[in-house]
Amino acid sequence: MISMVVPELGTWEGKIFVGILGFSWATYMWEEYLAYRQRRVYRENVQPPAELKGIMERSSYDKARAYSIDKSNFSLLEGVFDQIVNTGVMLYGGLPVLWSAAGRLSEWLGFSADSEIPQSVAFVALGSVVNTVINLPWSVYFTFKVEQKHGFNKQTPGFFVKDKIKKFIVSQIISAPVVAGLVYIIKAGGDYFFVYLWGFTMGVMLFFMTVYPDYIAPLFDKYTPLPEGVLREQIEELARQINFPLTKLYVVEGSKRSAHSNAYFYGFFKNKRIVLYDTLLEDYTPLNEDGDAKANASGEEEKKEKKKTGCSTPEVLAVLGHELGHWKLNHVLKGILISQVNLFLVFAVFGSLYKYSSLYRAFGFHNSQPAFIGLIIVMQFVFAPYNEILQFLLTMFSRHNEFQADAFAKNLGHSKKLVSALVKLNEDNLGFPVYDPLYSAWHLSHPPILERIRALEEEKKEK
Ligand SMILES: [Zn+2]
Predict the structure, then answer these.
(1) Which helix (H) or strand (E) holds 422?
(2) Of 10, 87, 369, 435, which shows the fewest CB atoms inside 10 Å?
């Protein structure tokens, strides 16, 4: 029989336990409150607000509203489920159960019973099996019900299954040596192990950032060089204009996954690549081919109805003007710097806390203090309040950067085309344009579309 492992409330471990569980419920309630406020916005704004005139068609507005309501209902249910599971894990000692199962697995594989490194690796592997199984029904429902219903899902069940299995295997291959390295450093690094820990994670991050585009990303999606033509020439011209060291220009077959669209740049120093989703490109996306074929078969009338998705060449350039603005203004570098400073802080605190036995007892570890468990407890639970605040500040930082990148594109002379690209992408992705102010301040890493358009057009007048 499984029984509760709640520590005695008067003790330190009891206080830690109550504090962590209490905070988890407090953030949960706060998130649900914000989601409730945003759901009210969806429900009450049946009529599009006046300022949307010329920005979003009525039919798209209605579709976006229905899509947002479905997504919001889905996350309400998933949120309740997750919160109950997480609480159950704490009340019934899920971590020690998984830890001892990992011990049996690593012993069965021939490692000695007290060897912490293989046990930690097995712990992570078992943990991700459990996670994948628990989340699978949600992921299936979201992809094949919610996204499907609104026309976004392009995955076949076969693609979905293969993709999940590939992701699982690749993430296991990557995480095993990383986990082993972390545990080894904590165990053998001496008093200042947290400095080595920090150096190690930085090295790992740089390594994967280097190999990701050439060796990992192609395992999941097809990348093809953008063919010669007007679009390619103009993108190269844009890169030259602002000294962007463009070496590779790819189109990724995002349409195999979903109809959502995007563009980004990637890479170190003088070796940068730009990746465009095929769904972003009006003349390239297979989603338009379908429509044309059908329209041709059934005459002119339907051709008018079936709208093209994606952006025209000048609009794609405006989008890239924005993306390259992020590069020119060092937004990525600043982001990496912030995350490294933060990681150093977290590791330093971990360095002073990780021998504190009450922390482990609070989670049901009475006889041992596994290093990796300590790392999880400190990073995920002890730092939870800090993480919430940091996340909020980063969201604010990101919104600020988005406005800056928009202004950069505007200075290159793309403001008009950027506005029309934003409008089109918002339509294609069925983004709902109205937000509750509190929800928007807490959650949106990109400013709402109306604010961006206002900013782009405002600055034009100043000129
Ligand atoms: Zn951006």
Answers:
(1) helix 415-428
(2) 10
**Comparison of pLDDT for 285 and 443, the residue scoring more:** 443
- Indicate the pTM of the whole model: 0.86
- Which residues on adjacent β-strands are paired with residue 437? none
pLDDT at residue 299 tops 60? no
Distance 332 CA to ligand 1 centre (A): 11
What tokens appear for 127 in the block?
Answer: 């943990």
In which residue are the tokens 């949106």 written?
444
The residue behind tokens 């492992």 is 5
- Among 417, 353, 409, CA closest to 379: 353
Residue 112 pLDDT grade (very low, low, confident, very high; cuts 50, 70, 90): confident
pLDDT for 306 equals 53
CATH number of 223-310: 3.30.2010.10
- List strands edge to edge, sheet with 263-268: 223-225, 246-252, 271-277, 263-268
Centre of ligand 1 from the C-alpha of residue 58, in Å: 27
H helices present in 109-229, as ranges:
116-141, 148-149, 157-188, 193-211, 217-220
Bridge-partner residues for 249, per DSSP?
274
The Å distance, Cα 241 to ligand 1 centre, comes to 19
d(CA 351, CA 348) in angstroms, rounded, equals 5
> Taking the domains of the chain in order of start, what are their residue ranges?
93-218, 223-310
For residues 92 and 4, the answer to whether their CB atoms sit within 8 Å is yes
* Residues involved in catalysis: 323
452 Cα: distance to centroid of ligand 1 (angstroms)? 11
Average pLDDT for the chain: 90
* Distance (Å, whole) CA 434 – CA 437: 9
